[in-house]
Specification:
12 helices; about 230 residues; mainly alpha; single chain
Amino acid sequence: MPMNPLEFDRRYGELDQVVSAYAGQDADDAPDRPSEALTAYLRHTWHIRPWALSVAEQQLREYARNPPGRLRLRLGEFYPVPDVGLPESRIQDWLFLLADHIKHSAESGEVPPPSAPRTHWEWQARFPELAQFLGGWFSQDMPDEFDDHDAAVRDYDTTTDRGLVARLVGELHELLALDLDEADYALAVAELGMEVDPPQPYSPSGWLALVATSLGGFRPDHGPPPGDAS
């Protein structure tokens, strides 16, 4: 019987975060150098959840020490490591190597320097609400669902909780503060799920700034009009 979500997170939740960082990336970690994927995981996790590093190290070692058999995998009682491009015979040593790199980073305080995201996982992890906005409202189906980009933005604005809208505005300002080249902003919106071009005549960064401005205004709740008993 598959594990319930709480049990899964207790055993494999942070392990899954580490392995998910390798989606589309090479698992080319070496004893003297973590891979680009693991560096992205360390950079992001140090920034928002440094306590999770110890959890990741523990879960990686425990899984490597007690790899699941085929029966328990079939029953859903273990985490099946996704294909990361390594032969099965190397997975155990690779997991131990990841745990060693994470332990070294946590104990030495060696943190990857701040930078723009460098992997798909890191873009999605760093800008989750922006990924929801661009992937949900600006997919390739957007021209069939909305008259134009402004209509899609208004739909997001009127159907989304105000706290999430505020979070999106903050993420937009954070992304713009990275001061990337325009080609890198085009890459950023693609990594975050946007499948249509910005409206003319805007560049990707210019359109993101426009969206941040249009969503960033405070809308006070004045309450019911005078004399309205409701």
